[in-house]
Here is the input.
Amino acid sequence: MNKTENILDELYKIAYEGLTKSKIEDDNIREKVEAICRCLTNKAPIRFLMSCLLAKIDRPEIDIRKPYTEIKSDDSYSGRTYDESYIQSFIVKYNLPCNPTTAFLTPAFRNIDRVLTTDLALIVKPRRIYTYSLELLDFVFTGKINPRDLLIEIVRFLIIIKTENETRIRQLIKELRHSNDVIPLSSEQIVTLLSQHLASKNASRLPVLIVNAAYIAVAHLGEKPLPLFAHTAADSQTGSIGDVEITLENDDKIVTSYEMKNKRVIKNDIDHALSKIKSLDYLVDNYIFITTDIIDEDVKDYAYHLYDEIGVEIAILDCIGFIRHYLHFFHRFRSQFLDAYQSLVLSQPDSAVSQPLKEAFLALRRAAESDKQ
Here is the structure.
């Protein structure tokens, strides 16, 4: 373990042991830190600040407002290097509620070659959170606050938020009925539950989890889903051809690939799928689009006629229609499916499935099962 990693572990220990007592006496600074850490819609500023603060602690001579080597001054530095080399593994190690990828590739923090002063106009949402971030950098630059104390405060709030989230999830799970005397939800009741969950805000990851859970529940039939990639990973980076890839037991060749769309499937989507299919040195059996939007008949017909041309069946299915048919077809495994879906939802990072979305599912399931008492 190098010096920088030791710094982070030491600061985590201090933050953990001092959860109930902030080291920052200034209420204004403390409130800004809490607002940044608790922001649900954009968590990039958290990693951004942590990286800049760690760099300043590690190299006191730098100007914390210059986390870009493009600035080309003696006191500039690479914030992205600190982010990817140290903050990344730190948040994974302690399972902190942060984005899983670097902040320096987000729209607000990439391609900047000037000092991050408080008058910098960033086109961002929520604007308030980014304004606070620039102000905190300025507070460190002017000596109003020590970078070490500020980083401890950020970590302290992240631990508090993580603990709060875990406590709420445990309580909601505890409230779910697991009695053998309760009749399991019917297939149609599960469809209603999933429809309600899909209608929630920021639910784009859920169709992927629905299809993945469907295969997990009937894995004994000999087909299994490959491990899911991060929701932010592009196919070109992972080498995958779909969002969910199905293989046969004891065989690594993909037999069915699913691509999820929260919008209408168009012909260009199918043409792009064709290029991915042709990049393989074998043929998949099916390439299936799962959409939460309407399906155009001409696009559906275009996909239908490709089978004779390439020997791969391409289909476009409605998400709810797909899972409704599945649940009736595998009616005896509907409870296993629902448990698998719940497990996947709860295991996703908050950047893929937000804490409110996780809590929403548990609350919806509790309400549905309570009606059967």
